[in-house]
Amino acid sequence: MGVRDSVTTRAGQSHEGGAGIVFGRAGRGPSSAWRFRPVSRARTRWLRSLSPGDHVILGDDAYGGTYRLLTRIFGNWGLTISTVDLEDLDAVRSAIRESSKMIWLETPSNPLLKVVSISALSEVAHEHGAMLVVDNTFATPYLQRPLTLGADVVVHSTTKYVGGHSDVLGGFVATNNDVFGRDVAISPVRDRRGTGSLDCYLLLRGLKTLGVRMDRHCSNASAIATFLSSHAR
Ligand SMILES: Cc1ncc(COP(=O)(O)O)c(C=O)c1O
Fold first, then answer.
1. Which positions of the chain have pLDDT values less than 50?
2. Is 157 exposed, middle or buried (0-12, 13-18, 19+ CB in 10 A)?
C-alpha cells in the first residue's frame, strides 16, 4: 500500500503518516489512502476527476451535503446528475447514459438507511465503464470493506463513528485504482488540504475504540429492532 502524506504545514509529519497507514489497513487493501479535512474536500476531490458533460448517478436519498455539492456546485460546472433508487438495478441500468462516468452510493444511506449490494452495483457500473464510489461513513471499515466488494473508491467522513468523540472533522479516501490514486496523491500538496497533527492524533485515538463502539451500536440497534418488530403499534 502506498500511503501519501498529506500536508498542512510540512510533508511527512509523523501523525499524518501514522493516520494514513492505519486508515489504509482499515480499508483492507487499498493501494492508496489519503486523509482530507473535512470530508467534503474528499468528495470534491473525486468529483473533480470528472469533466464537464460527464453524467453521475446518485442515490435518491443521499446525504444532503453530497446532493447539494453535486447539483449546485458541480451542476454549474457542467456535470449532469440523475438521482435513482440504487436498490433497483433495473432503474440504474435505465439511468445509465453514454456519458455516465460515476455511480455514487451510500450504503447504508443517510437518511433512509437503504442497504444496497455493492458487488451487484459494481458489476452494473463496470459493465458500462463507470466507476463506483462508495460513501462508507455509516458502516465504517469495521463493518464493511467496499473495495473488497468491487468498489473503485471509498470515502468516509471520519467526523462521525471513526472519530467517535465529536471533537474532530475529517475525511478519508481510499482506492485500488493506481491511475486515480496518483491523481489524488498530488491534491493535498497542491491544494493545502491536509489534516493537522492534532486532528490526526484525535482520529487515531478514535480508531482504537472503533471496534467496541460499533459492536455496541449493533447490539443496541438489534435490541431496539427486536422490541419494535413485536410491538403492537
Ligand atoms: C453519509 C455521509 N457522508 C458524508 C457526510 C459529511 O461529513 P462531514 O460532516 O465530515 O463533512 C455526512 C454527514 O452527515 C454523511 O451522513
1. 1-14
2. buried
pLDDT at 184: 72
CA distance 77 to 43: 15
What DSSP string runs through 107-129?
Answer: SS-TTT-----HHHHHHHHHHTT
* Claim: this prediction has a pTM higher than 0.90: no
> What pLDDT score was predicted for residue 109?
96
Going from the Cα of 121 to the center of ligand 1, the distance in angstroms, rounded, reads 22
Best of 43, 155, 157 for a ligand 1 pocket test (most atoms within 8 Å of beta carbon)? 157
Neighbours of 117 (CB within 10 A): 16
Beta strand spans in the chain (E)? 2-3, 32-36, 55-59, 80-84, 100-106, 131-135, 153-157, 171-175
CATH number of 2-51+112-120+128-229: 3.40.640.10
CB distance 40 to ligand 1 below 6 Å: yes
Question: In this structure, are strands 171-175 and 153-157 parallel, antiparallel, or unpaired?
Answer: antiparallel
Q: What is the model's pLDDT at position 10?
A: 33
Domains of the chain by residue range: 2-51+112-120+128-229
Radius of gyration, alpha carbons of the chain: 18
**Who's near 11: CB < 8 A, 6+ residues apart?**
5, 189
pLDDT of res. 6: 37
